[in-house]
Design a protein that fits this description.
The chain has 377 residues and is mainly alpha-helical. The chain has one domain. 72% of the residues lie in helices and 2% in strands. It is built from 15 helices and 4 strands. It has helices at 2-8, 12-34, 45-71, 78-95, 110-114, 130-154, 159-177, 204-230, 232-242, 244-249, 254-280, 290-303, 309-328, 333-347, 351-376; strands at 190-191, 195-196, 199-200, 282-283. Strands 1-4 form a two-stranded antiparallel sheet. A two-stranded antiparallel ribbon has the order 2-3. Strand 2 and strand 3 (199-200) form a beta hairpin. The chain is globular.
Length: 377
């Protein structure tokens, strides 16, 4: 049944995306590890980590498109779920440092020793085990999303009001995690990671392995999301997006559908954050910033809201542009990002993929008319 569900959403667009991801999963390790460094086809390790970062953001954009593009929930706080997943993975990585830290304490992270903490807080217990950290990557964002959605959707908060509340949620977490007494490293966050699953986190093979894991997670997330929107449940979600009152009058529990997709999206965002942290090497409260959530909305809008593959494309393209502009013209990046959002809103309301789909539909009838005429003759 699970296999049938996953195959439900596989169409031509999904086939193209999964093929590209499969090629990346094979080509990047070969170019990074097997090709000699003096070859023009060699891929440096920093480029591998950069690609992994882009694909982690793509998974976040995919999670956002699932709730915004198909259920009409514009979230301006998805960075909160992304960052919580990142902190869960960061706590595991900090516990792996042990006596190799600056202060040489076998159990307490360096920042706790510096702040004169005497013992490990209870909420850090268990993070020395990878399976527990992986469970928390899903559970913490999922439980927060479930609690938030339970109250928000039952109160029938919708539209711009819901968007503002989600932004207030992530801003509150930003302020909380900036405090040193929260036990998460304050404004410096968690960094200086040493190993993951017993492997040196800076080793080329480990970094390539993290990239492949990110590709696999993005492919799995896309298959789940695509199959979901192609199912009967997905059709109800689209109906909720387009005419929520009518769906409610037909007897559907709109709140339950919203709560389910909202929680699933938060878990996907948490996985994206967990994959982001070991590849970037740091997680701090700045990731909670509302601007990060707004950027994710721009990724989805540029690629094409309600297309899934467009969200992946938009995340990669916009972040590549950010990498280029912040190096070449750092003072102009924010203006370029704002201008891009305005241009997409005015001239590309369906995004890049939506525009391509519209052009394909316009060409299809023109190609079908001569075929029909020759058949009639």
């Amino acid at each position: 049944m699970l296999t049938r569900f996953l195959l439900l959403g596989l169409d031509k667009r999904a086939g193209v995306l999964l093929t590209v991801l499969a090629v990346l999963a094979v080509a990047v390790p070969v170019m990074a590890l097997a090709v000699p460094p003096d070859s023009p086809f060699h891929l440096p390790m920093h480029s591998v980590s950069l690609l992994g970062k882009y694909l982690s953001f793509a998974l976040l954009a995919l999670a956002l498109d699932l709730v915004w593009g198909y259920c009409g929930i514009l979230s301006l706080g998805h960075a909160a779920f992304f960052t919580l997943g990142g902190y869960a993975m960061g706590m595991y990585l900090m516990r792996q440092i042990g006596p190799r830290g600056v202060y040489g304490h076998p159990e307490l992270p360096d920042f706790m020793v510096f702040l004169n903490w005497k013992e490990l807080p209870w909420y850090w217990q268990g993070f020395d085990q990878f399976w527990f950290a992986a469970l928390m990557v899903l559970a913490v964002p999922g439980l927060l999303a479930f609690a938030f959605g339970w109250f928000a959707f039952r109160s029938r908060v919708t539209g711009v009001y819901l968007s503002i509340i989600t932004q207030a949620m992530t801003f509150a977490l930003l302020l909380a995690f900036f405090r040193n007494d929260m036990g998460f490293g304050g404004n410096n966050g968690l960094t200086d990671f040493k190993e993951i699953l017993g492997y040196d986190i800076q080793a080329p093979a480990t970094r390539v392995g993290l990239f492949v894991a990110t590709v696999a997670a993005l492919a799995a997330g896309y298959m789940v999301a695509s199959s979901l929107v192609a199912s009967k449940l997905g059709k109800v979600l689209v109906a909720v997006r387009d005419a929520e009152s009518r769906v409610r009058f037909l007897g559907y529990s709109v709140e339950r559908y919203k709560l389910f997709v909202w929680t699933l999206s938060a878990c996907m965002a948490g996985v994206a954050g967990a994959l982001y942290v070991p590849q970037v090497g740091i997680i701090n409260p700045s990731e909670f910033a509302p601007a990060a959530s707004i950027e994710a909305v721009i990724w989805v809008a540029v690629g094409g809201r309600g297309t899934l593959a467009g969200a992946v494309l938009g995340a990669v393209l916009v972040n590549y542009g950010k990498t280029y502009f912040t190096a070449a013209l750092p003072e102009l990046w924010l203006f370029a990002l704002g201008g891009l959002f305005v241009l997409v809103t005015l001239f590309l309301p369906k995004g890049i993929l939506g525009l391509a789909a519209d052009r394909f539909r316009k060409r299809e009838p023109a190609a079908a008319v001569p075929a029909a005429a020759s058949k009639g003759a």
